[in-house]
Amino acid sequence: MLNVRLSLVFLILWLGILFNVERIYEPMNLASFVYVLTSCLAVLIICTPKLGKVTLLQITGFSLPVYGCLKWYFGYPFSGPNLPITVTECVVLCVTNLLAFRVSMGIDEFVTAAAKAAEMVSPRQPLSLKDSSAELYEEVQRARRFKRTLSLATLTFKGDASIEQLDSLFNKAKTEITRKYIESKVAQQLVGHCDAGDLVAFQNGEFVLLFPETSAEDVKIWMHRMEAELKSKIGIQLQVGVASFPDQECTLTGLVERAKSERVCLSEYDFSKPASRDNASENAATRSEIGV
């Protein structure tokens, strides 16, 4: 950011000197169109994003012929006594291009860095089911190829009572905003507590979660812990269905449909068995052993 500020300061000082050069040194008499041309070029260079694909030499190679054409069009002589003026005008164009180019590059670098920082700060969000289907299929194929355990769960939240109360007080738009807010909170909770190799997708108000090398019982216990945290935060219940590969289904579509058909409230499950979903390092080590 400091380099951008310095480049911008130098450009402003340079343009200030340029527009007062005839007052500072009276024998200097630049062509009037040169002031307009340098200003337009500076604005064009700075306002053009992603200028890194164009080199400074290419910009100068474009501006000098334009300068020559305009000088010929307005009837200014090139050589003879006017040769020093012509050289000075070319130098003015080149210096202006250089300073404007440095400002533009600095702005692009700052924008790129800010975007990357925003991505790092922003919470991980689930992909849509359509966009993540390739990864889901890949995990199912990997489990089949290496004969590993895999579980898939579908999830939606149960909030009939609260929705009915909202319907009596608010209109349809406010209800939809509330639902989107709950979906966002559920997504943050799920994504924030998933391991690095787990997949979370969302479509039409329900979540699809894929847990490689995890049994169905461990998934249910993990879901129960997520529901307890969500209930304490926003007061919702989860309806969860879990399908296991290869015990119940052998395809992604079959796993999704089976999980949907077996979706019930978590209060109906027996959670006497301790969960093993917290051991993320063990899952990562197993993946590395099989080369995934």
Gap between N and C termini: 40 Å
**Which class do the helix and strand fractions yield?**
alpha+beta
The number of distinct helices, counting runs of at least 4 residues, comes to: 11
Major beta-sheet overview = 6 strands, mixed
Side-by-side strand order of the widest sheet: 1-3-4-2-5-6
Q: What oligomeric state best describes the polypeptide chains here?
A: single chain
Q: What's the helix-strand series? A: HHHHHEHEHHEEHEHEH
Q: Report mean pLDDT, rounded to a whole number.
A: 77
User: Which percent bin holds the helix content?
Assistant: 55-70%
Q: Determine Rg (CA atoms, Å).
A: 32 Å
Q: Any guess at the CATH architecture of the largest domain?
A: 2-Layer Sandwich
Number of domains: 2
Strand content is 5-15%
CATH topology of the largest domain: Alpha-Beta Plaits
Question: What is the element layout, followed by pairings?
Answer:
Blueprint: H1 2-19, H2 21-24, H3 32-47, H4 56-73, H5 83-121, E1 127-128, H6 129-146, E2 150-158, H7 160-169, H8 172-193, E3 199-203, E4 206-212, H9 216-234, E5 237-245, H10 252-261, E6 264-265, H11 280-289
Describe the fold and architecture.
This protein is an alpha+beta fold and 292 residues long. The chain has helices spanning 2-19, 21-24, 32-47, 56-73, 83-121, 129-146, 160-169, 172-193, 216-234, 252-261, 280-289; strands at residues 127-128, 150-158, 199-203, 206-212, 237-245, 264-265. It folds into two domains: 2-119, no CATH class; 127-289, Alpha-Beta Plaits (2-Layer Sandwich). It is 63% helix and 12% strand. It has a six-stranded mixed beta sheet with strand order 1-3-4-2-5-6, with helices on both faces. The longest helix has 39 residues, at 83-121. It is elongated and about 95 Å long.
